[in-house]
Amino acid sequence: MSRSTVIHIGALEPHPDNIRENVGDIAEIAASMVAHGIIQPLVVSPREDKPGHFWIIAGNRRYYAARRARIEQIPVTIRRDDLTPAQITEIMLIENCQRADLNPIERAEAMGRLRKAGKTNLEIARSIGVSDATVSYFLALLELDAASQERVRNGSIPVGIAIAGVRRTRRAARKKAGQKPHGVHWEPDHFDARHPLARKASAMCDAREHTRRRRIGKVACGECWETVIRADEQLVAKVTANGAPGVRFQPAGAAS
Fold first, then answer.
1. How many CB atoms lie within 10 A of CB 105?
2. Distance CA 169, CA 89 (A)
């Protein structure tokens, strides 16, 4: 159950488990609010520890922009149903994916929280409007060590190249353990010609004439894989990083 109302900005606070670590440039949003007010309400949930106050579960950027614009009365939609931590994370993930890009590690961490809450890759995919292959793609980033994740976070390593590193580490670990490769239900399509986005990635790589780049799965380079994956998320993403040969990645927990 929910209802819409207007409350003082002092009664609002960003949720401590908010997915987005950096709200980015909010100057234009603040200027628009000064000129036109807040058109879309924030989504909030009552705080059990502080009656009359609310956690923001969707609309952090608007909240910070309103503070910058010195707007005190904020339109909100109050969710009074008992939201579980997984539901709150899901709402924040959906809101951010639809409105402003998260960096790849933030998105992976959010999906990881949903996995820990018991959701399958397919359930996560359906809830945020992407393919289950895309969910598997981002969850793989959580297998990188902290240093490699930070390099992906700050853009110094393209996501596609990072994922390829994870795939190589998995294959090497299975080979060392004498295990046969897992099926597509565990690791969907391994970014080869069987992947549902393989044709798009290959066509893009051909159109861009990336003839001198190593093609992951003999399909497309890391940059083109990343571009089609982001397009599959229904986000407007601009991927400019190029693959870097010889880059080494450590899985989480491995010695550096």
1. 23
2. 30
Residuewise pLDDT in 10s, the chain (256 residues): 668 899 999 999 988 877 766 777 788 889 999 999 998 899 898 888 888 999 998 888 889 999 999 999 999 998 876 777 777 777 777 766 655 567 888 888 888 888 887 888 888 888 777 778 888 888 989 988 888 888 888 888 888 888 888 888 877 777 777 655 543 333 334 567 877 778 888 999 888 888 877 788 788 888 888 788 777 654 323 322 333 333 444 555 554 4
Instruction: List phi, psi (to 5°) of 69.
Output: -80, 0
Enumerate the domain spans of the chain.
Answer: 2-83, 102-108+129-232
In angstroms, the CA 80 to CA 144 distance is 38
| SS3 per residue for 69-85 | CCCCEEEEEEECCCCCH
From the options 3.30.70.1230, 3.40.50.2300, 3.10.310.10, 3.90.1530.10, give the CATH code of 2-83.
3.90.1530.10
The Cα–Cα gap between 187 and 185 comes to: 6
Cβ atoms of 247 and 160 within 8 Å: the answer is no
Considering only CA atoms, give the Rg of the chain: 21
pTM for the structure as a whole: 0.56
3-state SS, residue 73: strand
Cα dihedral value 194, 199, 203, 205, nearest 10: -30
